[in-house]
Amino acid sequence: METNLPPELREIESALAAQPLPEAGSAARGKILAAVGAELALKARARQQSWWRFAAALAALVLLWLNLSMSAVNCTEIRFSPEEKDGDERAALAQIQDLIPDCTVKEAQRQLLLLRARTRLVSAPPLPHGRLERAEEL
After folding, report:
1. Which letter does DSSP use for residue 84 in this model?
2. For residues 119 and 82, what is the distance between their CA atoms, to the nearest angstrom?
3. Which of 76, 91, 101, 119 has a CA that sits 20 to 30 A from residue 57's CA?
4. Residue 7 parent element (H or E)
5. Rounded distance between C-alpha atoms, residue 99 and residue 120, angstroms
């Protein structure tokens, strides 16, 4: 008997232990073993299902995080260079014309526009072959 039980439970346990028990038949052992085996298998299956539920929830969380982070990256304007002022533009045009003597003012402006656009580019992964052709067909 358990010694750390409260007195009421000890009395109930001793009263139950004092009652005469019917003799168990030979088929009772098989039934009990089958019931215990079924319960153990059910608990093992439930434990395995809880693992897969956890893995599925974790995968869903990772996909949600990736989706939100990609959305944040696409909606965020990243400036790699400080704001240009009008004097900066004139100085940049003069510098381009100094570097390329044959360059016209229009060509220098075009080159400056390209250089400034380059500073705001965000690197993106290359498209797999075939996707670009399919997009052009549409």
Report:
1. P
2. 10
3. 76
4. helix 7-18
5. 23
- Integer CA distances (angstroms), 48 to 53, 56, 59, 62, in order: 9, 12, 17, 21
Closest CA to 96 of 104, 86, 108: 108
Residue 13 near residue 2 (C-beta atoms within 8 A): yes
Under 8 Å between Cβ of 27 and 38 = no
Q: pLDDT above 70 covers what percent of the chain?
A: 72
Residue closest to 96 by CA, chosen among 60, 132, 80, 104: 104
- Predicted pLDDT at 135: 52
Provide the whole-model pTM. 0.32
CA distances in angstroms from 30 to 24, 35, 36, 37, listed in the order given: 11, 9, 10, 10
CA gap 110, 102 in Å, rounded: 14
DSSP annotation of 124: -
Please report, as a single letter, which amino acid is at residue 14. S
Predicted local confidence at residue 1, as pLDDT:
44
